[in-house]
Amino acid sequence: MSDKIENLINSSVGKKIMGALGVTVPTELLRYHAQQPNFFSGALLFGAGNNAQLVDATLRNLQDSDASLALTTECAAQASAAVETTVAERYQALVFDGSGFTDGLQLIQAYRFFNANIRKLRPSGRIVILGRPHMNCATPEAAAAQRALEGLSRSLAKEVGSKGATAQLITVAEGAEANLDSSLRFVLSPKSAYISGQVIKVRSAAVNKTADWHKPLAGKIALVTGASRGIGAAIAETLARDGATVVGVDVVQMESELAKVMSRLNGLPVIADITSSDAPAKIAAALIKAGGADIVVHNAGVTRDKTIANMSEQFWQMTLDINLAAAQRITNELLSSGALNDGGSIIGVSSMNGIGGQRGQTNYAASKAGVIGYVDFMAKSDELAARNITVNAVAPGFIETAMTAAIPLFTRMFGRRLNSLSQGGLPVDVAETIAFFGNPASRGVSGNTVRVCGQSWFGA
Ligand code: NAD
């Protein structure tokens, strides 16, 4: 949905002119396609600080990839099994295990690793830092050292973003090492192309192994609200690509669009306004008939922008109801009626504006911040934990959809560049993150709000 000026800028002539003017020209991001052999291929350099605890868990995963591995001396010393290593001139990924740091000054080892190797990172490359949740540390010094990894990874993300490369931190709780799998795969793969500067928290949970990483959702039922267009249609498509049967919901005005998307994906359309009083029961009944939901994606959302002095009560209330309250009523009904299966996933769609706020969007930002609060609270529920149900959210930034195409041209051109990757994301980038949350191997991933924003310059 790019416009003509944007296409001109991204042409080879345009790039030369913009380069000469000193304007950042975005690097085209590598995205996943289903024919790819595995989650990661290319040369990967793995380093570790003193007492690193995630070396074996990481190597176990990488042996399953097409990575040609190189290990730093410290890392090789900490690996329990001998690993064949090949030193490369350039790397597709740099992975560093800082989980053993108990003092801020020990981070000198991370500095040395990145100082020596960051120039060897390829365009669209990946940086992954591994650590422990700082609040679980035994001493304040260790908590500080682990939290320091977050500042390091977010800053590295800003240094490599102009090359289309990303950096993330994964924190793994003690005892959750076996759950690292899906998060490591996701951040190393092209599926995370538009995610950068994020922290993904992995916790203990009974994890189901994924037999086929190309069809991790085979046999699963996924509910997607607002599935007829934009991000919702991309979510439906991506979940179906991964093997799920999609139950798509949209309003009656979108009936024919929804029917087209669902017939293409062999999905089941349900016409409902999610705010209507009978919608929760209608959706629950359709899901029970289909075999019960394994993945629930609350994607339907609207904007009704006005500064607060000019905003009507109607604009305020309908935005809060569609974006927040309706999703809660549906979740309650799915839980109480048994329409949500054990081991399932509830996924909210928040927004960067819910994190950073936005002029003229008090209603929208309040609703989207509410989504994060709901996810944080629900992820702590003992009842859901006992049923191995995870609750997470995505917070998209500037995504190229009908919603953002309606923004005036120059504001739009400016807006899509306000992030480390200097470009807007695609609906599929949001969808890939949702598929990652929905993967049965991601039962250790709960209570996360992952921003899909190319590391937006705004927001916390
Ligand atoms: P969109 O307007 O293209 O699609 C939203 C869909 O939700 C539509 O099909 C619409 O008919 C449906 N919907 C709206 N109200 C409904 C209701 N009451 N009942 C059932 N369905 C309803 O929007 P999009 O850009 O694809 O956004 C999808 C989600 O992503 C929204 O929650 C939005 O807030 C969020 N988001 C989008 C962006 C972006 O850049 N596009 C950024 C951040 C967050």
Automatic annotation (TrEMBL):
SUPFAM superfamilies referenced in this protein's UniProt entry, alphabetically: NAD(P)-binding Rossmann-fold domains
Top EC category: oxidoreductase
The UniProt record lists the keyword Oxidoreductase: yes
Keyword tags: Oxidoreductase
Domain (Ketoreductase) ranges: 220-397
Alphabetical list of Gene3D superfamilies matching this protein: NAD(P)-binding Rossmann-like Domain (3.40.50.720)
EC number annotated for this UniProt entry: 1.1.1.100
Family to which this protein belongs: Belongs to the short-chain dehydrogenases/reductases (SDR) family.
Protein name: 3-oxoacyl-[acyl-carrier protein] reductase
